[in-house]
Amino acid sequence: MGRTLGVARGKRTGRRRLSAALVVIGFALVLGGCARRTSRPLVVAFGDTPVALDPHASNRNVAWSVLSSFFDPLVSLSPELKPQSALAASWEHDGPTHWRFRLRPGVAFCNGEPLTADDVVASFERARSLPSSAVSQYLVGVRSVARDGASAVVIETDGDQADLLNRLSFILVIRAADAHQGLITAPIGTGAYRFAGVRKDGSVLATAWSGWHGRPDCQNVVFEFCGTGAQAAGRLLAGKADVCHLIPDDWIPEVARSSTLRLEQQPRLAVQLLAVDMREAQGEVRRALADPRVRRALLLALDRGSWVARLFRGNGTVASQYVHPAVFGYDPALSPLPYDPDEARRLLAQAGFPDGFKVSLGYDAAGAAVADAIASDLAKVGVLVELRPGQRGAALLYFAWACSTGDASDFFESLVRNAGDRGFADPRTDVLLGAAGREADPAKRLDLLQQAQRRTLELLPLLPLTIRWGTKGVSPRVDVVIRYDEREDVAAFRWRR
User: What is the architecture of the domain spanning 14-247+472-495?
Assistant: First the structure.
């Protein structure tokens, strides 16, 4: 089979250092106005802090927009989150635990070095073993990765891994020579862009090159990190940015008043949830939350539709289930539970709590307004909520979960399967999820995930609340591609001419 997981070492030559320096100088000339109009930089503004440039040490949503400009995985996800070939031209699944990936021929890193199977093996080893790895969870169930000649790799798994292709999209490939680095700060990848430096304010510079992707239309890109959404929107309104990643809800009217700027709806995979944690529940509240009738009553008592209109300015919808409609495993036959405080009171009385009970609610700073709304709604049915800023030590927890792999198993394996530690072990659900993980037939697997979803909605260890969508701001100079995972795929953007 050949060499197994390991790290190959290499040295940078003076020519590589000179090449990198020329890239930075060339980019500076463009920013100084010495290039043609079509070579002016595309400026993408994020309401966030600067990102890490190590492809295995970051799993922030914003970071993927930058990292995927410099690096590629074996298998990528389409804008609709469907697996598609990237560095792997094709693959074979010729056994429940055996996958063989053939590398795309003629691929080189941006410094001219050819991509080989050794680079892929070293990347997987680093992603799994790096102490600061933020992507190792995507390799759970992968037993080994080995080269099969210079242009193929074989992945062996522990049992069936039906969502393996989706998860591999988060393992970006680096040079084997860079795998020993503690932290990568100057990316060298096979992506559509070369790394061209970092400004003092943390902005990341990128310049296009003619690799296997072909040369992108937007030659030079500046990724700006403005700290807040308001500051990013301000950059767009001032004509200093071409794209604002997400316009804050209260800035949308101002951007809409512009005669030139465009607003593009941005799907967001996250579903807002209210989780029950029995570890933090004692006495009366424990007896209450242990009863599925009480958990159903809590959901019925929440006026989620009013939150969408009032708190989200209409930019969202009431959730019918735990995953976004774009995620594999979504069940279109399910409808949201309605707002029905009278039925909530009836269920509470039936469960032995006609006067309600007291319960604590944890939340982060971004969820403060919704936490207040939850407390207000539940008080109307007699459930008194003690608000606890922070996400620890409360019997109820408000948070959001996005199936970033595009597969519902992301949610179920993380939060539902074997959930005995939170007091909600359910053997029937675990059997369904185990079967879904082994099922290779997409139609059968979809049915199993939907069955697991319906079963979980009966028990309600987590209450599905809302789905929010975002709004992207775009200048009149550029056309963008909207992705369900919110990544800014700048290589697919086009200047308007």
Answer: 3-Layer(aba) Sandwich (3.40)
